[in-house]
Amino acid sequence: MKQTLFDKVWDSHVVQSIKKGxxxxxxxxxxxxxxxxxxxxxxxxxxxxxxxxxxxxxxTADHNTPTINQHLPVADPLSRNQLKAxxxxxxxxxxxxxxxxxxxxxxxxxxxxxxGITQPGATIxxxxxxxxxxxxxxxxxxxxxxxxxxxxxxxxxxxxSKPKKMRITINGSLNRGVTPxxxxxxxxxxxxxxxxxGYFVEYAGEIFEQLSMEGRMTVCNLSIEMGARGGMxxxxxxxxxxxxxxxxxxxxxDWDKAMKYWKTLFTDEDAIFDEELVFDxxxxxxxxxxxxxxxxxxxxxxxxxxxxxxxGGKSTYKKSLDYMGYAEGESMLGKPIDYVFIGSCTNGRxxxxxxxxxxxxxxxxxxxxxxxxVPGSHKVLESIxxxxxLEIFNEAQFKLRxxxxxxxxxxxxxxxxxxxxxxxxSNRNFEGRQGPGARTLLASPLxxxxxxxxxxxxxxxxxxx
Length: 465
Hints:
2 domains, Aconitase, domain 3, 5-stranded parallel β-sheet, 465 residues, alpha/beta
């Protein structure tokens, strides 16, 4: 029987299928952080249970951490207690822990691939919705709730109903100034935030083959924003080159054995999907959101759509535009902005900072803009310094912060003030996502850079030479 990539990975991890119920799925890698794990560990303690396979679990501090002065004691009592709990739980159960100041510390979905924890054909879970990032390596990766975190810690398994399968194919070549973030925002704008609900998505075609591993991670990261359970891309030579010789990848004969399996991870010809969608990559422009969910995105040169041209209720659409202070038919170009944030598990990798630097080099940050440049990990931070990007940022009057989730979700000190506009390379633009009353415009690192130096929404292609 012909199988999809998703079928091959899922079926090989089924421990037991419950009749008319979910599958019991074995989990290869479990990633945890300070926010969704304390209650799970408390549940283990109350039940007298231990972590079954501590070497398959990896802990890092990221969500509720400061991005300046990380060498000092954490001032916020909630953050401090969460970080302390994660360290104590990881230590008592023999779990690898990368806390503040640790050279491997960073956002969980950035450090996982950096150290080879993420591998093709694996099942990966984390108490975080953007776990779908790891699907870029041909893994099945998805977010879970706190009770499920406890389940995986105790049993290394999870009960899940098998999702339906969708394939999104995009062929052609990307135009100048178009990035993987634009590809993802384009897809979400076409499907809406619920268009892939109940599905696991495979991305296929020339566009995804051309993307770097960082770019593939960005696309898979945003799968959740169109309602999908996760997204994945078949591993290829780029994948194997990226993960080879990383700390937790197989070595020697184990590598050869793994490669033999990894090279079978592709969708068989004539395999059947429940849904197939095809787009033309040449028709994708730099994108920006104008509303209060990731599906409300348009080409940066287009005007805000009229209500009658938008799927959904008109009252909801009006509420969203009122929150943003925008109106139907307005152009996005030239709209003033106050903040720029580059970072998060969506766009906090070295490739993203290279893109940002390519625009701001030789320019100065707009005086009316506050910019937060937050690398996704210490490895990214060191690369920024080694590649001379920090000098470019300093000369343009930008300041680099320390690794963390930062303004992506405003669970830390990095909050956008009420009523202010932020061009953000993160993943969500819900009301209050980046701070109470904050107005978020999702965009690529290139669009963010153009806004940072002009102080307004600007087509980055006008600044690419």
